[in-house]
Amino acid sequence: MIAFIGRRLLLTLPVLFGIILLVFTMTRLLPGDPCIAALQERATPALCAAFNQRFGLNDPIPVQFVRYVGDLASGNLGRSIQQGRDVADILVERLPVTLELTLFALTFATVVGITLGRLAARRRNSPADVATMIVANLGVSIPVFVLGLLLAYFFAVTLRGSPFALPPSGLLSAGIQHRDLAIVWGAEDLTGFPRAVLDFMSNMTIISSLISGQWEALVDGLRHLILPMLALGTIPMAIIARMTRSSMLDVLGLDYIRTARAKGASERLVNQRHAFRNALLPVVTVIGLSLGALLSGAVLTETIFLLPGVGSALFEAIRSRDYIVVQAFTLITALVYVTVNLIVDLSYAYLDPRIRLR
Amino acid sequence: MTADARVIEHAEARAPSSLWRDTLGSILRQRSAVAGLILIAVIALGALLADVLTPYGPAQQLTSMDGAARLGAPCVHLLGCPSDQPQFIMGLDENSRDVFSRVLHGARLSLVIGMATVSLAIVVGTLIGAFAGYMGGWVDNVVMRIMDVILAFPALVLVIFLATSLDALDIPVLTDRLIVAMLAIGTVAIPIYARVMRASVLSIREREFVVASRALGESQAGILLRRVVPNALTPLIVQGTLGIATAILEVAALSFVGLGAQPPAAEWGSMIGAVRNLVFSAPHLIIFPGAALSISVLAFNLLGDGIRDALDPRLNR
After folding, report:
1. B114, B244 Cβ separation under 8 angstroms
2. Which sign does the torsion angle of CA B201, B206, B209, B210 carry?
3. pLDDT for the residue A229
């Protein structure tokens, strides 16, 4: 197992290197003198020469690349030209929102997708199966932004005044108090890294409301989260449902299932204990891969539902041509994606011992 | 008629079977493939006849027309809209343009975009894959690791990154943001086809019939074109069909965030992006282009799934 993990980690390194190299190359290719961008009207040739000297912009490109990697490792992602702030600061503020949204969407996609897929497989070719697969086919075909806008219209306008109406934008309603964890727990004089962690967690509205017992904010936050979660989670849900169905059908056709039935195991037991566990492997892979759809979709979902996450920051950066931010967020997203897929691969090996030996 | 004669007649009446006919037959037995084909035919017809079927031009502003209100809701005479009012079956948009005309013309753009980007990706991808598979060794390793890097990004995020970067580079030929978006989408799709082609090359090149044709003096290019490519065709067609769906979706998403087609163009994603703040007052501006977009994506997804089910021997239970 350790050898497998080691090999898998080693294979990830060139990919990580490639990702950073690609983003670095694009950064260097872009027009715009960094000196002029930083100093603006104060930039004179003499000052720029000193500036380039100071920040090593005259060094050979490989040297600059090594420094770039070093900067990344120490969390320096550059500075947003439009906002005049460090990208890392924007990230700490916005990442929690995206993480929470993605987490809920992924949970929704997994739970509903697996349930639907199993239902369809158990009653193959029944109306329930056909209906489920129609839903799944429609689900992968409707773009996130179309679904999001339609959900917002349906729940905020069509159902207005009914108990099912849901708010179409924002994290919390106006007037709902959500206090930072540092304040709730009386840790206001905390500084440095622990404080940053606490603030990071505070920005996950629902999770922080839950652990600090702010029930009003929790309920309101959940109501705001439902629509974005549905919009973002539908495509992965549909993919997972289809994969679960076909994987279950594959497994249910195998000999050992017949053996289990012949031994007199109940249909429930066969499905639960024998078939589902073995059908789970390809599903786990798809769950990992669907994170790509989630991260991509977060850009569109957060824009539509006005959530202050990484995705909407990326959207604003595109609109204002704030390239440094676009690059930094691309890099971070890719790193998250690669890491999660690494974890999925490793868990796959854990679930299926044969893979370790290959 | 004797029984023998009947058998002979029956045999003659059957069309001679060929590989292509059999393949087509098994595809047409798949319900999803047929549904996809019908939908694509309808969309393609709509796109081809857009000028004939629509009463107005896609960019024509009907501001001076009587009864044509800005953001006007759909008015269909058959559904009880007063017949003294002009008919707009999908309503009017924020610039008093006929949404039906724009949606239909949008089909043209989306189909062309989908096919063009996938063609680009298939051509470049198969060349790269064939090259890597044929060369083997470190060349193969380096090329495929580069492909891995592209696949390591969430697709849309990389597309956004490439499109913004290409846009910022101000390359003289690439002034049209739609072309930039298509290039980005095509590039991100290349690894899929490269992998398919490489796998095919690797599995074919040591087979007896390839060794035999090499012994008979067939050139490398001949082996590649006549032996390897036909064997890779099935997965390429399946991936390509599904790829068109993805490309249509991604172009629409890019246009929605403002990177692809630019506002006056009748492109579904950009139409939706331009009015997304009006969703609560004029939902028809989202519903119709959104439906057109979803149906197109659905059609190519269904066809791709159908072809795969028809041609994948493992699925013939």
Report:
1. yes
2. positive
3. 92
Question: pLDDT confidence of B131, banded at 50, 70, 90?
Answer: confident
Rounded mean pLDDT of A342-357?
73
Q: CA distances (Å), A288 to each of A7, A281, A282, A348, in order?
A: 19, 11, 10, 10
* Radius of gyration over every alpha carbon of chain B, rounded to an integer in angstroms: 25
- Per-residue pLDDT of B255-298, as tens digits, reads 888 887 777 777 888 888 888 777 777 788 888 889 999 999 99
Chain A interface, best mutation among B39, B145, B156, by max A CB count within 10 A: B156
The residue of A232, A321, A324, A330 whose CB has the most chain B CBs within 10 angstroms, and thus the best one to mutate to test that interface, is A330
Distance CA A322, CA A161 (A): 41
The residue of chain B with its CA nearest to that of A146 is B290
Mean pLDDT over A333-347 rounds to 81
Rounded to two decimals, the ipTM of the complex is 0.81
Contact A146 B294 (CB under 8 A): yes
Q: Please name every residue paired with B98 in a beta bridge, in sequence order, or none if there are none.
A: B92
pTM of the entire predicted model: 0.82
Cα separation, A118 vs B286, whole angstroms: 34
| H helix runs in A123-141, sequence order | 127-141
10 Å Cβ neighbour count for A262?
8
With CB atoms and an 8 Å threshold, state whether B253 touches A144. Answer: yes
Residues 6+ apart with CB under 8 A from B90: B74, B98, B99, B100, B103, B284, B288
- Report whether A183 contacts A189 (CB < 8 A): no
Secondary structure class of A350 (helix, strand, coil)? helix
Alpha helices in chain B (DSSP H): 3-13, 19-28, 31-48, 50-53, 99-135, 137-151, 155-169, 177-204, 208-215, 220-222, 229-257, 268-274, 284-311
